[in-house]
Amino acid sequence: MKKKHLFMVISLFLLGGIIWYMVPKNTVEGAPVEVLEEVKVKSGDVVIDFIADGNVRVLSKEQYFNTSGVLEALHFEVGDVVVKGDLLAKLNTDDLELKIKQTEIAINTEIERQKENITNHTYDIQKQEAIIESLTKELQREISLLETMAAYPSIYTPNAYDDQLYKKEQLETTLGSEKNELQKLKNESQALNNLVIDDKKVSLELLKLDLEKAYLYADTEGVIGAIHGVVNNNVGTTNAFLTILDQERPMIFSMVSELDIGQVTLGQKVLVELESDYGMTYEGLISWISMTPTIDNNGIVSYEVEITLEKYPDTIRSGLSALLRIVLKERLEVLVIPNTAVKIVNNQQVVEVKENDQILERMVVTGLTDGVNVEVIQGLEEGETLIVRSLK
User: Phi, psi at residue 44, to the nearest 5°?
Assistant: First the structure.
């Protein structure tokens, strides 16, 4: 019995060895297995691009007070929308307004004083005019006498005539001096009064200009992004008091490597994905390319590029991170299939199409590929089913 039992064990071992030897080796565990996957021909986009990082930069306008003082009123808060000309803030103007009133009073007082001066100078002028009138009459008499002496030389001696001539000349000199004095009185009076009034008017205008500087108006429209001041605290002129953001023109700025900058042109399409708005893609255009390189500490050369967004979310903010896909080529709304669905048979592009539970080969013509999907130009229709073979 023992011999018979041993013979059976040996026979089974040999039979198992023969069966193992005859089984194909690719059926063992871990060997590749061909897998058939069905995919649909669909409409889609094929885009060739390169990736770059960027950040949102909202253009801003900083507003400064042109004079220092204590902040009295603030009419807007951060986040409020303003339009050009809105009154943003006001400094305390109590001292200025008091000085303006005092200057106005001083001007009015000076005007009254001028009136009094004019009255006094009018008297002086009238007095001087009376002197001139008297001298004029006297001169006329002396001239008349001189003419009589010249007409009757037999009556008047030569010495008498010479004395009369001298007297006439002296009167003419005196009359000329008095007339000059009269003109001087008129000129000095008017010039002095105008000088005082003009100085005070200049002071008043300067005070009014300072008063205007106490009011800060919006130079542009936008959204208040920052305010650097508190009511009842001092405000200076060195630092910006507030910042207005131009939410209508957010830009994306990116540093593009020197290896890629040659592929970038003005007006080029860019697909933008904001980190703060995950899942959404916005279109933009290259609007500016720097001609000046930026070289970092490692010697890497890059160029700044500006992208203008056509549409953007209301939540966009300066500094937000963005992923940019700078488009080099694209085919939009075309028939698209996986690259792996296409094989080359006899130098022809061929795909396997499932029709009525049968798998048939069909020649196709393809176009642009992004490395994953390929455009179908000819040979397929949307909705058809393809077989994609792979080893797993």
Answer: -170, -165
Q: Which residues of 39-60 are buried (b: 16+ CB within 10 A; e: fewer)?
A: bebeebebbebeebebebebeb
- Residue 32 and residue 392 in contact, taking contact as beta carbons nearer than 8 Å: yes
pTM recorded for the entire structure: 0.56
Q: Residue 354 in 3-state DSSP?
A: strand
CATH number of 34-46+333-391: 2.40.420.20
* Angle between the N-to-C axes of helices 158-213 and 94-151, in degrees from 0 to 180, rounded to the nearest 10: 170
Which of 6-20, 90-104, 152-166, 301-315 has the least mean pLDDT?
6-20
Say if residues 48 and 330 touch (Cβ distance below 8 Å).
yes
Please determine, for residue 371, whether its predicted confidence score (pLDDT) is greater than 70.
Answer: yes
Q: Which residue type is seen at 237?
A: T
Domain ranges of the chain: 34-46+333-391, 48-58+243-330, 65-91+216-235, 95-213
> Which two structure tokens, joined as six digits, stand for 67?
């004079």
More confident residue, 153 or 92: 92
At residue 317, the 3 state secondary structure works out as coil
- Is pLDDT at 265 greater than 80 in this prediction? yes
Place of tokens 């255009």: 285
